């Protein structure tokens, strides 16, 4: 296995970015849900501050991931896929990448529109994305929440497809994104 | 608008140096009693070299800045009163008095404002006003320094309020401009009970900046 991608397998970097982002997205969902249920106060503030910091981390990783993808070969889909399955895979992956940007960006707009500047784990303060605006905050909150539901749906499709490839079709589509597996 | 030295202005004024410090009520208190022998205390020697200035609320700002979750956040106070009784001949006898209605704070977010006004932070219902009263004003390299007592959240502490001061003749009417910034530590005043005692997410330092336009009392 190599650092870079090959035509049949994802490299170390692509795998690392994929799984790190998986962990961070799960963290985001947990933080957001804890924060939403908390009464107004310090704990809620802390949860949302972490949520914003992790979100900005994901945005940065998404940029790196996309650049890395462009600079590397993309492992080909199995030749056995039907045309509609190729389209579905393409749409799903495009949707996932889109949301990797759209979720943090709408979140950033939310916090700026709310008038709460965000910081990255207290190390530096982010510039305000948009000026303070209550209507924009409400619109962005609505969008952020809706996109989260879209993310759940697309992730479900993505996971279901990966499992189908592994257990039903018995190809190496899942395995080639897993670290610690033998070279196909 | 031509700046004139404060000393010249203050020393040159003859009239009633009204020392009636009653700044409660957002600076909209009247001074109709001044200048007609009704002043509570008339400086000895015919009021020379002393004249109380009051706030022009519309052209003044009182803002505060604090760190929330690693980011600088701002707020402003909309109701406060300032009386500067400046005597160039006797700076030690000069007085700066500021009364702030803590409930008039505005950080641009109602939920946050309500939290700040709540029992665990400013406890506005119990302590509706904060007050700074100078004990000594001294000349410094850059302007002046008012040492005095700040009572906030029912707790009094000595603080310093540095400021620059310039006067201007605005179409025959004098006006004073007081500018400056000081930093207070909220926990010194018990602002932050329970979870809010922690400075992990909300910093202890609160920077207070003031840009005030002061005018002589009406009736002078």
Written account of the structure:
- The complex is a heterodimer of chains A (184) and B (220).
- Chain A has helices at residues 12-37, 42-70, 83-114, 134-168, and strands at 119-120, 124-125.
- The model of chain A has no long low-confidence stretch (mean pLDDT 94).
- In chain A, 66% of the residues lie in helices and 2% in strands.
- Chain A has one domain (12-177): Up-down Bundle (Fumarate Reductase Cytochrome B subunit), CATH 1.20.950.
- By secondary structure, chain A is mainly alpha-helical.
- Chain A has four helices and two strands.
- In chain B, a hairpin with a 2-residue loop joins strand 9 (144-152) and strand 10 (155-170).
- Chain B starts with a strand and ends with a strand.
- Chain B has a single domain, classed as Lipid/polyisoprenoid-binding, YceI-like (Lipocalin, Beta Barrel), CATH 2.40.128.110.
- Chain B has an eight-stranded antiparallel β-barrel with strand order 2-5-6-8-9-10-11-12.
- By secondary structure, chain B is mainly beta.
- The longest helix of chain B is centred in the middle third of the chain and has 8 residues, at 110-117.
- In chain B, 7% of the residues lie in helices and 47% in strands.
- Classes of the chains: A mainly alpha (184), B mainly beta (220).
Give a nutshell description of this structure:
The complex is a heterodimer of chains A (184) and B (220). With 184 residues, chain A is mostly helical.
